[in-house]
Amino acid sequence: MALFQIDYFSTSLSRIINFNILIPNDILPGMSAGNPHYLRGVKTLFLLHGYSGSNRDWLFSSAAVELSIKYNLAMIMPSGENSFYLDGKGTGKAFCRFVGEELVQYTCKTFGLSDKKEDIFIGGYSMGGFGALHTALAYPDTFGKAVALSSALIIHDIMNMPIGFQDGFADFDYYRSVFGDLESLETSENNPEYLIRKMVEEGREIPEIFMTCGTEDFLIEQNRAFCQFLCNENIDVHYQEHPGTHNWEFWNRYLEPAILWLLNIEERS
Description:
By secondary structure, the chain is α/β, with parallel strands linked by helices. Helices cover about 35% and strands about 20% of the residues. It has helices at about 30, 55-60, 65-70, 95-110, 125-140, 155-160, 170-180, 190-200, 220-230, 250-260; strands at about 1-10, 15-25, 45-50, 75-80, 120-125, 145-150, 210-215, 235-240.
């Protein structure tokens, strides 16, 4: 297993940034023998961290290394800071473009990864789950599938938020700086629902979506509502609920089932 920690200048973010990438390109023959995933080229999964997290979260808190080897899957873990992976106003805040365009092109060119849509996936937990959904919808010609674990689908929670409001995570000024005018979120490019409605109207193909959330998670109702929205728009979504809360125990438990879904492998009971 090769682990790269890359520092390079990002034009989208106007500064030196870093990301981690796992590539199973040095697996010994005895480890890959009989593994059907090594009869094909490597596929790529972008993994996005949550609010207050970093690009090391998936590397140190999950079974990413083991699953990368097992499924011949490159895993790219960028830092999204607390951006919700959206393009903010001002220089150096284009996080959606950074992940959905620049980083894909950079890693494909630098590491010889496939640039085919069917070989590129994106996933994340919490804020990263929101980011995975939004980025896949913003770049539907780049990502074939999206995985969203316990997604922070908070658009309706912050829509029309009054000035001075503060919850347990952030305040009005933060939400406005990240999502833009909160009174205009219904028709904002930062709203995944708006992107889907627009794509449906234009007859564009929507990436396949996998969603799961713990039944004791504080974001369960938001995930249920978004799933219902997708169903109302006749969008196929693979949605699961399981006992669990908003923690790594839950995300680790369902990372491999999500990968099986990405690779079109039937999960064994």
